[in-house]
Amino acid sequence: xxxxxxxxxxxxxxxxxxxxxxxxxxxxxxxxxxxxxxxxxxxxxxxxxxxxxxxxxxxxxxxxxxxxxxxxxxxxxxxxxxxxxxxxxxxxxxxxxxxxxxxxxxxxxxxxxxxxxxxxxxxxxxxxxxxxxxxxxxxxxxxxxxxxxxxxxxxxxxxxxxxxxxxxxxxxxxxxxxxxxxxxxxxxxxxxxxxxxxxxxxxxxxxxxxxxxxxxxxxxxxxxxxxxxxxxxxxxxxxxxxxxxxxxxxxxxxxxxxxxxxxxxxxxxxxxxxxxx
Length: 277
Fold this sequence. Notes:
Layout: E1 8-11, H1 18-31, E2 36-38, H2 46-56, E3 69-78, E4 83-91, H3 94-102, H4 107-115, E5 118-123, H5 156-171, E6 183-188, H6 200-207, H7 209-216, E7 223-228, H8 241-246, E8 253-255, E9 261-262, H9 267-273
Parallel strand pairs: 1-5, 5-6, 6-7
Antiparallel strand pairs: 2-3, 3-4, 7-8, 8-9
Helix pairs in contact: 1-2, 3-5, 4-5, 5-7, 6-7
């Protein structure tokens, strides 16, 4: 199979934990005790080496530079020995907001958007702005209120829907029927900060109902997982001694759609690539 046919379009704005999840996922693949394992030498690991080194020291990884877009290629195998090549990107999350702001797709994104069979959307619920926006606050309510009115902005969930619509348009995936491809998985990141026992799909519906309804009405089988890549908050300059002693591979977990927890951080990737093994 070609590299691009096993690639994942990783969609996530700044601060949702893309770099931490990538570094922890890479460690899990190297350790090889999950559903997926590394099956050969990975290439172009530079974007993740600094992050893995920081985690080894019990420190949070630095933010990925805004202009960065680098693909790392990981040969992987599942528990049954079936092989694939996983192309995993690292990029600055500001590029996501720029797509909706400019309505332009950078060249580095276009091929991936069109050809990647699987999309992984990272959403950090606690940083999503859900106040009144131009969709929830009628324009009639602004009549006669004078120039001192605050500008009504589009909400974060509305912006995420617009982003997905742009990507689907570029891909040519705007159809009346529900989509089977690209397969979609939503990861609710930083789950340990949410303090909720709700199922991931239920929590997405509660916190971002418009986004949840859009996804459910667009895809045939979307899945929603919870993700805690680090299991606890880490700081950039204040080392977590227990983290460095035990090793970052001992931390982090996935919350399955049915609420079960697993320390196998490869499960969402295995779910997305299952049909391509």
